[in-house]
Structure formats: structure tokens, C-alpha cells
Design goal:
Blueprint lengths: L8 E3 L10 H16 L3 H26 L1 E5 L2 E6 L5 E6 L3 E7 L2 H6 L1 E8 L3 E8 L1 H16 L5 E2 L1
Parallel strand pairs: 5-8
Antiparallel strand pairs: 1-2, 2-3, 3-4, 5-6, 6-7
Helix pairs in contact: 1-2
Amino acid sequence: MPKNPPISPVQSAARVPLTVFASSFLLFLCGVLILVFFRGFIALLGLVIIVLSMIDVSSLLTLKITLHSTLSDKGVFIKYGFTRRVDDFLPFDEIQNMRIKQSWLGKKLGYGSVILLGKRFGVSIQYIEYPEKYLQEIQSSLLASTNTQPTPHT
């Protein structure tokens, strides 16, 4: 699999919305309340919750800053990350299955993950805004390039 295949970009639509930070913010607030109103071991748990929420925010912020997904006439090109850089290309002719994964909160706030499974490997584009719209764009590009479409599962 080539690292940088020759592609002619068609569109780029994957974006990480600010609403993905809502659960981390709620955890942070719970941790602060526990830390303020309790003492001893329970307060220590509040501090642990605060630290975990900050780790979650940092990973989501990294994804928001670095996510680049381009649909081309040949496939899907995905890049994200600083230290553990993901740089994948999944050709349309190798895609066997596509699906959307959303939590309850993700459905309410309009974000989720698009999972593309290929013959040799799969790609997950996490926490993107309007995953249904992005999956439709992938399917449209796939139809335009191959005139066949894998079965989407949601």
C-alpha cells in the first residue's frame, strides 16, 4: 500500500465538532464538585476524574486540530495525530463494509464515528460532525468511481 497515493481531491468533509467536548466538560465539573465538597479518599477520586477528563480533552483537541480526510476518485485518505500519526489510504475497490457508530450523547449532539472495513484493514474516522452526511459523501464518491456500492450498516 503506497503511503502517498496519487489522488485528485473531490471533497473533504470530516470535521470534529466542539460538542464532543461536552462529556469531558461534565466529567470535569463532577470532579471539581467532588473535590470541593468531599474529603479524604472521595476527594482523591474527584482529582482522578479531573485528570482523566483533561486527558480526554487533550486527545479530542489533538484530533480536532489534526484530522484531515479527503475523498478522491480513487478512495479515502485519512490523516490525524501528532505523536502517533495515522496516515491511511483506503481504495474504493477494497471497501467491503461501511457503518456508523454513535453513542446516545453523540446522536443528541450530532457526532459519531464512520467505520470503513476493507479487504486488508479497516479505518475508523472518530468523533466527526454529521457522520451520516459524511458516509453519504463516501458512498457517492464510491458510486461515481466504481458503479458498485458496499452494503452500509448503521
